[in-house]
Design goal:
Layout lengths: L1 E2 L8 E4 L2 H7 L29 E4 L5 E7 L16 E7 L8 H16 L4 E7 L3 H11 L2 E10 L2 E11 L5
Parallel strand pairs: 5-6
Antiparallel strand pairs: 1-2, 2-3, 3-4, 4-5, 6-8, 7-8
């Protein structure tokens, strides 16, 4: 269990449990972000990885999000030619989004990531429709749009925006 360094509300990062997975799969969003609603999953398939996943909870034990890193954080079928950045994938409980909570959340996530992993850069891949996420990562966290990728999925082709943050401490 690791506590994030102090920007705003403190969060605790701990390995995701089966109960967390069931809770996360019950989260529902409205409107254009409903595409993030997770499908019910067998928890055993997502729990074993050197790169997470981690539950992100408040000190009172309230589950507010999750994250994972490395190859597990990449979009399936995506062409990731540059292996140097550490990939990040994360989710925030839908009823906490759109009110500024994500700024504190992402900053705490980056603090935890830098404590846990050594990387010269970090990469996040978001559906191109997630303009709010792209703006959040760029405006408040220093990520830059560095490309896009298109993958074939069940519903046809989907385009993703790739954002990268160079860690100034690594140079």
């Amino acid at each position: 269990m690791t506590t994030s360094p102090g920007i705003g509300a403190p969060f605790v990062f701990r390995p995701l449990t089966r109960e967390d997975v069931w809770a996360i799969t019950s989260w529902r969003d409205l409107g254009p972000y409903a595409e993030y609603d997770p499908a019910p999953a067998d928890p055993s398939g997502v729990l074993d990885s050197a790169y997470g996943p981690y539950a992100i909870i408040t000190p009172a034990g309230e589950l507010v999000g999750f994250c994972r890193f490395g190859p597990a954080a990449r979009v399936a079928g995506g062409d990731y030619l540059d292996e140097r950045p550490l990939d990040l994938d994360f989710g925030v409980r839908p009823n906490l989004t759109g009110r500024g909570f994500e700024i504190t959340f992402v900053r705490a996530l980056l603090g935890f990531t830098r404590q846990r992993f050594v990387a010269e850069s970090y990469r996040v891949t978001l559906p191109e429709s997630n303009r709010r996420g792209v703006r959040l990562l760029g405006q408040w966290s220093g990520f830059k749009v560095t490309g896009e990728l298109t993958v074939d999925g069940d519903g046809g082709k989907q385009t993703f925006t790739v954002l990268t943050l160079t860690d100034r401490r690594s140079g």
